[in-house]
Amino acid sequence: MTFLDQFLWVIYPYIVISIFILGLIMRYNTDQKRWTAKSSQLLEKRLLKWGSLLFHVGIIFVFFGHVAGIIVPLAFYELFGVPDVQYRLMASVMGGLSGIAATVGLLILLYRRFLIKRIRLSSSISDLISIVLLVIVVLNGMVVTAAHSLDTSGFDYRANLAPWFRSIFSFSPNTLLMTMVPSIFKFHVFSAFTFFALMPFTRMVHILSLPITFLGRSYIVYRKRH
Ligand code: HEM
């Protein structure tokens, strides 16, 4: 195991987690008024409707897919007798469909952000960096899913990548597990961690602000002037 392995799969994740937590606390304390998704709907509606809807629906399912593959241990599937082929099929179909929705939506949003002049001019550097990084993570995720679906070598990320990920949070990081993981998976994880390191300083903080109170709050009554 090299120093690079130690850096990427032990030191870097903890640096990211620290920046993520401290960055969020700092942002909340100093910049609460701009803790928002910074809607650009007033500047362009048509592409936003499709891009945003497809991306958000897709990425929510992708999130649940990650919970099922990374957080839920392999032992759970073994306990309930779910064979590997069945898991792979489920991951390929569900992950593939939700990934395609997220990718198509994201590409529409990317086009809109860079090629619609009024949107580009109203974007900050952090807006541009976060969407490009998101494109890298999501496209790479799609490559990972395709590779995993077509792979017949028997590689299963639930036996190495997933326990490594969980070991970070139990403060006993097992780097050796990551040395068994193919590079495309490693790149996906590294770019995802980088995305989380930047999140507190971008409009992406809105991911953490689910508008739950919206469901229970009283109606806002609008009346005509006359
Ligand atoms: C460090 C955290 C992450 C880990 C360990 C991880 C790991 C994985 C793995 C193993 C797959 C393949 C799933 C399969 O083929 O069954 C995957 C796919 C994917 N990932 Fe991630 N990922 C992480 C974060 C993210 C983030 C932050 C995003 C986007 C915001 C993302 C987007 C995707 C997409 C779009 C796919 C393809 C669709 C799917 O299979 O769900 N991932 N990821």
Molecular structure report:
The chain contains ten helices and no strands. The chain has about 230 residues and is mainly alpha-helical. The protein is globular. The structure holds protoporphyrin IX containing FE (HEM).
Give the class from helix and strand content and strand pairing: mainly alpha
> What's the total helix number?
10
* Sheet with the most strands, sense and barrel status: none
What percentage of the residues does DSSP assign to strands (E)?
Answer: under 5%
Q: Can you give the mean pLDDT?
A: 94
Q: Give me the strand/helix succession.
A: HHHHHHHHHH
End-to-end gap: 75 Å
Helix content: 55-70%
Radius of gyration: 20 Å
Uncertain regions spanning at least 5 consecutive residues: none
Globular, elongated, flat, extended or rod-shaped: what is the shape? globular
Number of strands: 0
> What small-molecule ligands were found?
protoporphyrin IX containing FE
